[in-house]
């Protein structure tokens, strides 16, 4: 069976988490202000009512945004397909888990991109080990909450340690 690519976003398996969790400010990317945890007023169920005309309606920021598969993974892996819309008590937990999973998937993206770098064999092995831990692990909410002060820090320190092997643009582009 082919392995799921965790960085592939699938909105049909999400619960519109980006449209409720994230905040945005009125400006060139968004037509109005929205607070974190406030469902976007363009949301109906899990669907965006202006999906086909986001840019024209003043929301190019929504077109540009990609959670890198964090939303669908959180909903399916951590919450077994449940939604904050049918059980509002889940909202805070889903917000926290989504934030943690976004950090996991940012690190996966970074570690995959580092595959092309001329790393020392020991560093290349470390990179592969980190990647396997992030991709193969089945995450729980509490583990995601702890991610940024645990494994994410280890990975960031790893990249700091190999920074002299990185092209100047590598981290800046991510
Ligand atoms: S405008 Fe549509 S895509 Fe953007 S946050 Fe609102 S519901 Fe989501």
What does this entry look like structurally?
It is a single chain. The protein is mainly alpha-helical and 174 residues long. The radius of gyration is 18 Å and the shape is globular. The chain has helices at 17-21, 60-64, 70-78, 91-113, 121-136, 141-147, 151-161, 169-172, and strands at 43-44, 47-48. Helix 3 (70-78) packs across helix 4 (91-113) and helix 4 (91-113) crosses helix 6 (141-147). 22% of the residues are buried. The protein has 8 helices and 2 strands. Strand 1 (43-44) and strand 2 form a beta hairpin. The model has no long low-confidence stretch (mean pLDDT 93). The protein has a two-stranded antiparallel ribbon with strand order 1-2. It binds iron/sulfur cluster. Iron/sulfur cluster (SF4) is lined by residues 19, 40, 42-43, 48, 50, 59, 62.
Strand order across the largest sheet: 1-2
Structural class: mainly alpha
Which percent range describes the beta-strand content?
Answer: under 5%
Unique ligands:
iron/sulfur cluster
- Figure out the total of helices: 8
- What percent of residues adopt helix (DSSP H or I)? 40-55%
In sequence order, what are the helices and strands, one letter per element? Answer: HEEHHHHHHH
Silhouette = globular
Q: Quick one: how many beta strands?
A: 2
Mean pLDDT rating: 93
Report the biggest beta sheet as strand number plus sense, adding barrel if it closes: 2 strands, antiparallel
In whole angstroms, the N-to-C terminal distance is 31 Å
Q: Outline the low-pLDDT stretches.
A: none
Evaluate the radius of gyration.
18 Å
């Amino acid at each position: 069976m082919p392995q799921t690519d965790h960085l592939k976003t699938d909105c049909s398996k999400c619960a519109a988490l980006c449209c409720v969790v994230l905040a945005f400010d009125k400006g060139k990317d968004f037509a109005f202000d929205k607070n974190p945890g406030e469902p976007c007023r363009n949301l109906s169920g899990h669907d965006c009512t202006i999906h086909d005309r986001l840019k024209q309606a003043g929301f190019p920021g929504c077109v540009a945004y990609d959670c890198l598969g964090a939303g669908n993974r959180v909903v399916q892996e951590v919450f077994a397909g449940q939604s904050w819309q049918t059980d509002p008590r889940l909202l805070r937990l889903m917000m926290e888990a989504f934030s943690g999973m976004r950090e996991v998937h940012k690190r996966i993206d970074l570690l995959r991109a580092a595959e092309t770098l001329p790393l020392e064999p020991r560093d290349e092995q470390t990179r592969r080990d980190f990647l396997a831990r992030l991709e193969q692990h089945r995450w729980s909410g509490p583990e995601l909450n702890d991610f940024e002060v645990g494994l994410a820090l280890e990975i960031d320190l790893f990249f700091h340690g190999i920074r002299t092997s990185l092209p100047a643009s590598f981290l800046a582009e991510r």
